[in-house]
Amino acid sequence: MPKPYRNIPAAATLFFLAPIVAEFLLGDFPATWLLLVVTLAPMYGGGALLIRELTRRSHRGWPTILLLGAAYAIIEEAFTTQSLFNTHYLGLHLLSHAWIPALGISAWWTLFMLNVHPFWSIGVSIALAEGLFPSPAGLNPSPASFYPVAPSFSESVSSDSERVGEHAPALQSGPAPWLGKIGLSLAAAFFALGCAINTYFQFHHDPFRATHAQFIVSVLVIAAFIAVAFIIPAPAPSRNPDAANFHATSPARSRPVPSPWLMAGVTFLLGAAVMLPPLQCNWGAVAWTLAADLIFLSLLWVLSRRISWTPLHTLSIGAAGALVYGVHAFLQPPVVPCPKWIVLPSHILFLALALAVIAVAVRRTCSAMLPGSQQQTPAEPV
User: How sure is the predictor about 253, in pLDDT bands with cuts at 50, 70 and 90?
Assistant: First the structure.
């Protein structure tokens, strides 16, 4: 029996990469506060690692990651920081835009948090980490498309194979779990501990408390996101695209996709649109953000289902998201007092580090895509 695949360096990288992306690359904290990663990593890193491992162990894809990321967003912003309900959080008056009195929330801020955490804190971190550590081939049969393929859009593999008169091609592998049961348990424990520590700190320094009704509704929303993440049908494992006639009956999947560079450019523009909404328009900012989300997800729905989508396309989207954060950092002050002569070099440092991580991830992903590579991994797009 083959020894189970484990990759502790990859798990450790994601554990520390997530808080750096979420708080330091964004510009909330300067480099002089880097030791704060020790406190933030259990919550951000533990959460990202737990989400990734649960998804990969259940042979699911990015829809599950994003839905669990949305649950993470509610956990952090409704309970740990309570920013969804606190009108004076950090003294920034974040809830003044598109305020909904009956719910005690801002439609824009809630939607913004449901973008920031699933797409950036969780999604970008996982995409970069998986780009740095491509999974060896043959470990984890997994979906090749961004969304589960509905019966109305795609018929079974066996039916296709019978029509073209060939045997079904061999299963491809996707990103494999990095941890075993003990590692998964540790990730869950770290996440719980991180949430508890950060919640205690916030409650100790801010007297604001949300209402019981707000907490109860938040729990129900979290449960709903988690349930949907695992109720949605898991896509069937992808098949070897080397069989020339295998996809002949699916012209839509055989169409070309834009280059990874173009995908990165489009993703960067849409990410910038989310980060720079017209807040003076209030509900217009909500519509603006929803439009950017709709365009982004629609493009992925169409393009990532095509067989020419590669792991480099997936990485390009995560890289573009990271660069959006790195550039946006120059446009906002840190959330902690810091001299300007430290802020600018700090932003430059983290942007340079992001570029370095992206460069290494691109090189390793391209190497894994070479024919005959021991790490050759099929596309499992973002």
Answer: confident
